[in-house]
Amino acid sequence: MPQPSPSDVHVDSVLTALSVKYANDRDSYIAGKVFPTIPVQNQSDIYYKFNKGDWFRLEAQKRAPATVSAGGGYTLTTDNYFCDPWAIHKDVDDQTVANTDAPLNAFRNATEWVTDQLLLRRDAEWANAFMQTGIWATDRQGVGAGPTGDQFVQFDAAGAVPIDEVHTDVKRIHSATGKRPNVLVIGADVEYVLKDHSTILDRIKYTQPGMISLALLAAAFDVERVVVADAIYNTAAEGATETMSYIVNSKSMLLAYAAPTAAVENVSAGYTFAWTGLHGSNATTGRVSRFRIEERKADRVEAEANWDMKAVATDCAVFYYDVVS
Predict the structure, then answer these.
(1) What is the CA radius of gyration of the chain?
(2) N- to C-terminal Cα separation, the chain
(3) Cβ-proximal residues to 297 (8 Å cutoff; 6+ apart), any chain
(4) What would the pLDDT profile of 263-302 be if each residue is shown by its tens digit?
(5) Is cis: bond before 181, omega within 30 of 0?
(6) C-alpha–C-alpha distance, residues 239 and 64, integer Å
(7) C-alpha–C-alpha distance, residues 24 and 229, integer Å
(8) Distance between CA 51 and CA 6 in Å, rounded?
(9) What residues does 152 pair with on adjacent strands?
(10) Global pTM exceeds 0.90
């Protein structure tokens, strides 16, 4: 059965200046905000990884007269990517188009819907690739009290000092990689706690009155950017009552170094490989096409994108979970 049906889009009287559509703000999607995207011509290929230790070892030596210089070098290993295709379509039948009242536009709405579907999927795959335990060299768990090892006091518990915890891991990453982490990804619940945290408010009260912005949080945590992961999705099956959930666990956090430019010669905690060599797909949202299906008396609006999201330098990030209670 067509969705929406002809009766769904035509009513006896309609407010032409108003229609209601629930969707994430496009700015809520974070998959393209954190790590660089590398456009690639092939669906799969290998890339080189430089051995970290070779670039930090003291190899240069004093040179005596009439002697050769000290020699050295570096080793390479390889890894691979494979860009999985993701696609979704919406059929727009002729009867629905002919019976649609303003301000609805069947083809515009279909294009927005398939685009949002890919953006939702892209953020979900980003969360699976980067915002989980077991991915990075260090995972840290928040506890209510008495932390041991890499645990820490949850940010909404008594005695928590979030800035100190993050600064500890800024030094941890820098001392292991030579790179200072420059981005902090926070879940929605973490954002609310941090913006109202007494230890953070106390540090800025003499210089920045009012609410704490993301820019102020970034300065407090000594990173360039704080990114809030607050896009939501419906976990219920079609026809069932909506069950909304955050795509990224709202109580999680990621501190990472993200390369400023997309190049595999640049170390970065993560990269997104986007296959742009297929039918001219762009690196962000792939491509949207429209074609006729005559036997259905409908036009199909289809969106497709191809990507592989990889943690390529696992010591360049720290993942935090159970950050708040």
Answers:
(1) 25
(2) 45
(3) 93, 94, 95
(4) 767 899 999 999 987 766 676 667 888 999 999 999 999 9
(5) no
(6) 81
(7) 12
(8) 61
(9) 142
(10) no
Q: How many residues does the chain have?
A: 325
Which tokens go with 173? 């990453």
Contacts of 258 (CB under 8 A, 6+ apart): 34, 35, 36, 182, 183, 268, 269, 270
User: Rounded to the nearest 5°, which phi and psi values hold at 159?
Assistant: 90, 0
| DSSP strands (E only) in the chain | 37-40, 44-50, 76-82, 84-93, 138-143, 152-153, 183-187, 225-229, 232-234, 244-246, 253-256, 270-275, 287-293, 298-311, 317-321
Q: How far apart are alpha carbons 147 and 168 in whole angstroms? A: 15
How would you classify residue 239: left for phi > 0, otherwise alpha for psi between -120 and 50, otherwise beta? left
Strand partners, 317: 256
127 contacts 233 by C-beta, under 8 angstroms = no
CA distances from 117 to 20, 113, 289 (A): 18, 6, 15
Q: How far apart are CA 201 and CA 198, in angstroms?
A: 5
Q: Which two structure tokens, joined as six digits, stand for 168? A: 């500890």
The CA-CA-CA angle for residues 235, 239, 241, to 5°, reads 55
Q: Nearest Cα to 4, choosing from 116, 102, 88, 110?
A: 110
Task: Give the DSSP letter of residue 55.
Answer: G
Secondary structure of residue 127 in the 3-state scheme? helix
DSSP 8-state secondary structure symbol assigned to residue 310: E
Q: Mind listing the pLDDT tens digit for each residue in 98-114? A: 888 776 788 888 989 99
Tell me the C-alpha distance between 99 and 2, whole Å: 13
Eight-class DSSP state of 184: E
Phi and psi torsions of 134, nearest 5°:
85, 5
As a whole number, mean pLDDT of residues 182-203 equals 94
Cβ atoms of residues 274 and 39 within 8 Å: yes
